[in-house]
PiggyBac transposable element-derived protein domain-containing protein
Amino acid sequence: MASVVPRGLDYILYFDNWFCSVDLQVVLKKAGISSVGTVREARLKGCKLPSDKELKKKERGSYVEMETTFEGVSLRAVKWFDNRPVTLLSTFASASPENTVKRFDKKTRTSVSITRPSIVGVYNECMGGVDLMDMLVALYRINLRSKKWYRRLFFHLLDVVIVNCWLLYRRGATAAKVPRNQQMTLLLFKAETACVLKQQGKVSTPSRRRPLAPSKIENELQAKKRRGPAALVPCKEIRLDTIDHLPMFSPKKGRCKYPNCTGITRVMCRKCNVHLCFTPEKECIYRFHTTP
């Protein structure tokens, strides 16, 4: 991942304790790239920091800093006690200058000021992207048990790809001035993606009839979705793929899902699983699958 970062231009890499280690930071520094990240104490190569229990005995905001030189590279490790102890390692940042931050004290039920090392502020300033990714992936993780390690890796990569695609979708929608409340949530985006991947590519039965002129049907369908509990209307990619949209009869009647149609019918689309009129007077099932 760091191979695309220009060397010798004072770029800084931020990472969490999954990646951070002394060896990695030394290699990056020798390549002209500074770095900072939270680190697991077992990776500090004999650095004797106070234990969590010892640090908790001190007041909140206490910290310990240790400095060393490894293979010609200066490293600083800082262990700070906030809600819990956290350890950071850097090739450029240190504990000074200190600053103060507000924290809520559960005992006194008030906000108090505590000391915060400079390295913590530097890390928090630019680390939001990785932490945000972890949080979004954890919200709707693919939880399929498997004894094969590579399957879990594949599912995790799939989660990461979907989250990245959703973030790009949100960026594009925001740039297009789409209101936030009209943008798809991550859960809906993931469900729509799964639905499209599942249903696209079935046996094709393309219509020979000439399609109608484009209209505002997609906007009207979205508005119809928001009116209340109803059958799920398929997304545009499935609705217009001209594949396997065959009529079938349902034992129960239902309201036609074509916009501006209030008819009651027993006919359903076999693929979309929604009621649509199919009579000599109304061909909603055709218009539903051909009008953008």
